[in-house]
Amino acid sequence: MTETASRSAPADETDGFLASLAVYLRPRVLIVILLGFSSGLPLALSGATLTIWMAEAKVNLATIGLFALVGVPYNFKFVWAPLVDALDIPLLSRLLGRRRGWLVFTQLLLVAAILWLGFQDPVSAPWQVAFGAFLVAMASATQDIVVDAFRVESLETREQAAGMAGYVAAYRVGMLASGAGVVLLVAWFEAIGVDRADVWAWGYAAAAAMVIVGLGAALSAREPGGGEAASGPAAPREANVLKRIWDTAVGAFADMLLRRDAIAILLFVVFFKFCDAFAGVLTGAFVIDIGFDKAAYAGIVKGVGFAAALLGGFAGGLIARALPLGRSLWIAGILQMLSNLVFSWQAWIGVDLAALTLTIVVENFTGAIGTVIFVAYISALCGARAHTATQYALLTALAAVGRTFLASGAGFIAESTGWVWFFALTAFAALPGLALLAFLQLRGHFRQLAAQAAS
After folding, report:
1. Which residues lie below 8 Å from residue 22, measured CB to CB, with a gap of 6+?
2. Quick check: helix, strand or coil at residue 314?
């Protein structure tokens, strides 16, 4: 009997591993992955790719720098997220359901905005270019709100991490397609003799055509909740539109703030990835400061780092599927903390390409694991279907606090301590998040989330 059990154990482990991989082939997970590509696609078009276009057109650097402001919608998308929860898109929501209707609407807006931006002239019409870039960012940020809500509502709890892993991988591929992909395409257009005045317009037109990936996914998907819009006959809605929006916003925030241990939960959202953000804000400056050139750093980050991040994302999905959410967060938190110490080692080693490669691989791999598992946790918090978009946008805005406000003093600390001790201190910055994780676990927070998911 013991012999039989010992022979069957490896098979059970293999079956469990194969089941963890098979989740990526489920239709609803594949839909989320395709939507990830569509979400990542617009980012560079109003950012890095636009900057290259303007620099090539000899726009002055001061103007180019100001164009960073067109990305503001990504930071404040939670402000209009209640609109996505409260309102239907005429005709589209009736035909497809509320979430799918919004998905198709935002993707059609993206196509129009990208095409309009691509056919402007950054030299003679900088304001039109700025307006076009702002429209792309607005449509993209709104699409992110809808895709996040759709993903949370479509996937089962055990599929959330896998869905997010695939989403993050596809998101990065979308960024690559609209970044390096569009730039290479523009260069090819020039090489085959297309007029230089038209090459960027055709490059942006090609990017607009890539939105068909997300559009096809939205049309192929099923509406969360059995195919009806959330405003279906089973859920009569307030006729006054403004009151409906107000009620949605108030309901979303009240549902979040009135739950047990709400303050600890929100603080955990702020602090869990703080150590990652604290170190990450100066990573590029650190590598250049200790003696590496930009070409070496860019080559390692864009090449090896990109691959490591993709693998880390899928590893995070496997961990979150195989283990309870609380235990998965412990693994992610400890890995993030230890990975910062690798930068201290790099600072001690100095200029060594092999060491830098290892450092970037560790950082990207562990960071991606942490991101996927953390997003699975945030998704689990958004349990009320009527408020998914608003709550998710709010939680991601809170998570960004560490990357923006809390990490803003990192440069002063690095100047005072030196790089070796700076990165050691960033590792200690993981402790508040881990302490809150322990507190929430003792309070039964994760058991409660699991029970809600099962009900």
Report:
1. none
2. helix
pTM confidence score: 0.71
**Mean per-residue pLDDT of the chain:** 81
Give the tokens for residue 120: 């402007």
Tokens of 29: 């997970």
Which one-letter amino acid corresponds to residue 93?
S
Q: What is the DSSP-derived secondary structure letter of residue 180?
A: I
Q: What is the DSSP letter of 352?
A: -
Q: 3-class DSSP state for residue 225? A: coil
* Candidate from 115-124, 233-242, 250-259 with smallest mean pLDDT: 233-242
* DSSP, res 88: P
Q: What is the DSSP letter of 302?
A: I
Instruction: Summarize pLDDT for 388-441 with one digit per residue, the tens.
Output: 777 777 787 777 666 656 666 777 888 888 889 989 998 998 999 999 999 999
Q: Which residues contact 81 (CB under 8 A, 6 or more apart)?
A: 145, 389, 390, 392, 393, 394
Rounded distance, CA 220 to CA 241, Å? 30
Distance CA 120, CA 115 (A): 9
What pLDDT, on a 0 to 100 scale, did the predictor assign at position 385? 57
Q: Report the distance separating Cα 7 and Cα 18, nearest Å.
A: 18
Max Cα-Cα span within the chain: 82
Do residues 333 and 437 lie in contact, with contact meaning Cβ atoms separated by under 8 Å? yes
Q: At what angle do helices 157-176 and 306-322 cross, to 10 degrees?
A: 170
Q: Across 242-246, 382-386, 429-433, which has the greatest mean pLDDT?
A: 429-433
Pair 166, 32: CB distance under 8 Å: yes
Six-digit token pair at 98? 């509320």
226 torsion bin: left (phi>0), alpha (psi -120 to 50), beta (else)? left
> Sign of dihedral through CA atoms 163, 165, 168, 174?
negative
Distance from chain centroid for Cα 336? 17
Calpha distance 140→117 (Å, rounded): 14
Q: Reduce the DSSP state of residue 183 to 3 states and report it.
A: helix
Q: Helices marked H in 155-211 — which ranges? A: 157-176, 182-191, 199-210
pLDDT at site 281: 67
First to last CA, the chain: 37
Q: How far apart are CA 96 and CA 39, in angstroms?
A: 20
From residue 364, give the alpha-carbon distance in Å to each of 5, 20, 164, 312, 381. 39, 22, 16, 7, 26
Q: CA 362, CA 19: separation in Å to the nearest integer? A: 27
| 253-272 tens-digit pLDDT | 667 777 788 899 889 998 99
Tell me the C-alpha distance between 310 and 169, whole Å. 5
- The DSSP code for 406 is G
